[in-house]
Amino acid sequence: MPNVQVIDRKRHTGKRWQRYTSYLHTAADAVAHLVMPELPRACVAMPIGFVEVKGGLAPVAIQGLEPGRNEFVAADGRWLADYVPAAYRSYPFVLGTTESGRPVLCMIEGSGLVSDTRGEPFFGEQGEPAPVMTQILDFLIQMAGQRRVTQRVCKVLREYGLFQPWPFTRSTEAGEETILGLHRIDTAALGRLPPEAFEEIRRAGALPMIYCHLLSMQHLAKLKRLSQDRAATQGGGPSAVSGELDLEFLNHDGTVGFGALNPPLMQSREVRP
Predict the structure, then answer these.
(1) Is 259 inside a domain boundary?
(2) Arithmetic mean of pLDDT, 98-111
(3) Domain count of the fold of the chain
(4) Is residue 224 included in any domain, yes or no?
(5) Residue 266 in contact with residue 123, Cβ under 8 Å?
(6) 56 SS3 class
(7) 25-60 tens-digit pLDDT
(8) Neighbours of 59 (CB within 10 A)
(9) Alpha-carbon dihedral angle through residues 61, 67, 72, 75, given to the nearest 10 degrees
């Protein structure tokens, strides 16, 4: 995990931050977290699968067919898909929590987006957080809440046995390789559900997730074409050392834990992103 620092007055007063202009920081992400509200938009642009996260399952955008490669990022940092996962939109900021569970705003130190002279200030002239800092914190808090809701929906689907492993193959210089680590909806199991079970799934709000996932599966062919095109232009590139997707980076759920912080950083408020 990258070096993350809490934003505080002592460290960041007089400093400025710049908005990212490149998606190269996502170039090694084969998958990205998704939450319920963004599934309808994501499903028309990229395949959606499910991965194990902290003992449960959660939806992700499938961005690459091998570990450490995001096919939706061009060599010059442009984003190539028609939708950008919300998990990327707050970069370089991430959510932290204190030992007491209070949310705090943090920043990835290695982002290269902190400056003494360029960009937007972290704090105002009176030492108060700049309004955009509070807005970003609110957005991250809401995203964390949506992840919890999303995982509860996935829990219901899992309880009814509606997930199955989703292995798929990719071509390498050594031949066909099977990629493991993803799951999909078992449509046969869905069709066998008794009416009362189907109704419980509907009440849990899981049907939109199912439909978006199934609709998105058509984009796997597009992802394969992007992978083949990149291999053709770059001479194949490095070969993955394993057929297992490395998903450990998802397990921190976008939130970083810190010890007690004093004084409090900033107060948050509930707003829509």
Answers:
(1) no
(2) 88
(3) 1
(4) yes
(5) no
(6) strand
(7) 999 999 999 999 999 999 999 999 999 988 799 999
(8) 28
(9) 160
For residues 214-240, b (16+ Cβ closer than 10 Å) or e, as one string?
eebbebbeebbebbeebeeeeeeeeeb
> Is 20 among the domain residues?
yes
Mean of all residue pLDDT scores within the chain: 84
Amino acid at 123: F
What residue numbers bound the domain in which 156 lies? Answer: 4-254
Whether 212 is covered by a domain: the verdict is: yes
Encoded amino acid at 83, one letter: Y
SS (HEC) of 159-181: HCCCEEECCEEEEECCEEEEEEC
User: pLDDT (tens digit, 9 = 90+) per residue, 171-227?
Assistant: 666 667 777 889 999 999 999 999 999 999 999 999 999 999 999 999 988 888 888
Closest CA to 94 of 158, 27, 181, 1: 1
